[in-house]
Write a structure and sequence with these properties.
The chain has 257 residues and is an alpha+beta fold. The protein folds into two domains: 73 residues, no CATH class; 170 residues, Nucleotide cyclase, GGDEF domain (Alpha-Beta Plaits, 2-Layer Sandwich), CATH 3.30.70. 38% of the residues lie in helices and 25% in strands. Strands 1, 2, 3, 4, 5, 6, 7, 8 and 9 form a nine-stranded mixed sheet that branches. The two termini are 25 Å apart. Bound molecules: zinc ion (ZN).
Length: 257
């Protein structure tokens, strides 16, 4: 993603390829299975240890608390990311969703009402994505970016990403108070650690053509609907038509869901 405050990092490609690629890393997939049954959200982005509710309290007592400098990760995963900077190219599904007409609505609303509306959207969208095994990558204003790496979401990552896109269209449809626009696509993605402030802060990010196409599909999606590419949604057996996307050289076959 094009967040200029972060520098993309390379290296440890075998390790990151194992973590996010088909099959996943055995240590991490064991943790995912174990923590799945402990309530509750939010969770560490990498190992999925719960931070909230009873599970969070229990795991906090075992030293698995949110890291202070990077609360999206537990302290153990933050140290792991710090010790193993780098990334790998992995075939995965990607989803972008944002609020439609947010500039126009914001201009006509109180600041507090705008913040409340955005928070409500982000919280529901996050739940829909994580309930469908998606990995939240970033929040940009009122936009949520998520990925389904096979190492996390399994071999049926495309079906899960499409299911999430459909659920987002159902929750934030054309007639809802907060109509959204979603793009969902799949293909090779460079997923890696990024650093800012000369190594003071590390996070994970995604780069590449697949990511840019997904962002464009989201911005072209009709209000309250999702544009799904044929690469991710071929299993629907829908009719796909060529979409010319701004800044993308060749048309992308996509359908509205
Ligand atoms: Zn963790």
């Amino acid at each position: 993603m094009s967040d200029e405050t972060f520098d993309k990092q390379d290296g440890n490609s075998e390790l990151w390829g194992t973590i996010f690629g088909p099959g996943g890393h055995p240590a991490l997939t064991t943790m995912h299975r174990r923590y799945k049954f402990l309530p509750a959200k939010p969770r560490c982005r990498l190992c999925r240890v719960p931070f909230g509710s009873f599970g969070g309290w229990l795991m906090g007592r075992r030293g698995k608390a949110p890291c202070k400098r990077n609360p999206h990760f537990c302290s153990a995963c933050d140290q792991f990311i710090d010790a193993n900077p780098g990334g790998a190219e992995v075939d995965m599904s990607v989803l972008y969703v944002d609020i439609r007409n947010s500039v126009r609505t914001a201009a006509a609303s109180e600041t507090a009402a705008v913040a409340q509306r955005v928070n409500q959207f982000l919280s529901t969208a996050t739940s829909i994505i994580t309930d469908n095994d998606g990995f939240i990558m970033a929040f940009y204003g009122d936009c949520v970016v998520a990925v389904w790496p096979p190492g996390f979401a399994g071999p049926d990552h495309r079906q899960k990403a499409v299911r999430a896109a459909k659920a987002l269209s159902a929750a934030f449809g054309p007639d809802s108070a907060i109509p959204s626009g979603t793009g969902v696509h799949s293909g090779p993605v460079y997923i890696c650690t990024v650093e800012a402030g000369a190594g003071m802060f590390r996070d994970m990010s995604i780069f590449g053509h697949t990511v840019n196409v997904t962002a464009r599909l989201a911005s072209e999606a009709p209000a309250g609907q999702a544009l799904a590419s044929e690469a991710v949604a071929a299993h629907l057996g829908a009719e796909f038509s060529a979409q010319d996307l701004k800044g993308i050289d060749s048309p992308i076959m996509a359908t509205t869901i």
